[in-house]
Design brief:
Strand content: 15-25%
Shape: globular
Low-confidence stretches: none
Largest sheet: 5 strands, antiparallel
Structural class: alpha+beta
Mean pLDDT: 90
Radius of gyration: 19 Å
Number of helices: 6
Helix content: 40-55%
């Protein structure tokens, strides 16, 4: 899905999230109980980490995650765009992003992952973050790739930008 279709992407993500949680609850009722328990924690970070843990990281007795089992079944309930999004989400990872540029379109930005210093400049499309981001903002968050850009996923922690004072030692 191209950045120009951002509103459509949001619709697909919302439908996909509903279907995913419904299917997770049917397949693994204990996951629903754990997610409901995380709701009582009142931490959006704990809730998100618990949810994606059950979806993408915790292997079952067969050695596969919930998402991998669903992929093996061919994602029967999903439309093609939703399959692409879910395959991206299956690659979710933690990143410490440093915003290098906020683009003029008001919904995208370029960032580097400071946890992968040799990695490429990544383009992100996220209207709400792009409105608030400034150059050199740092965000600890979850990310996943899509064919044309990257997405931030769930919650994030914005870290303060440090001001550094460099003093030349030995200068007269």
């Amino acid at each position: 899905m191209a950045p120009e279709n951002y509103d459509l992407l949001l619709e697909h993500e919302a439908r996909l999230d509903g279907l995913t949680l419904r299917r997770l609850g049917q397949e693994l009722p204990e996951a629903t109980r754990a997610i409901q328990g995380a709701l009582h924690d009142k931490s959006p970070h704990a809730l998100h980490a618990t949810t994606i843990g059950w979806l993408y990281f915790q292997a079952g007795p067969d050695g596969e995650t919930f998402a991998a089992r669903w992929a093996q079944a061919g994602f029967p309930e999903l439309k093609n765009d939703e399959r692409v999004i879910l395959r991206g989400k299956m690659q979710v990872r933690v990143a410490l992003l440093e915003i290098q540029r906020v683009r003029d379109d008001g919904q995208s930005m370029d960032a580097v992952d400071l946890l992968d210093p040799s990695g490429p400049l990544l383009r992100f499309v996220d209207r709400s973050v792009a409105r608030r981001a400034v150059r050199f903002s740092r965000v600890l968050t979850w990310i996943y790739p899509l064919p044309h850009f990257w997405r931030m996923f769930g919650t994030g922690v914005v870290l303060p930008v440090e001001r550094r004072l460099y003093v030349e030692v030995g200068a007269n």
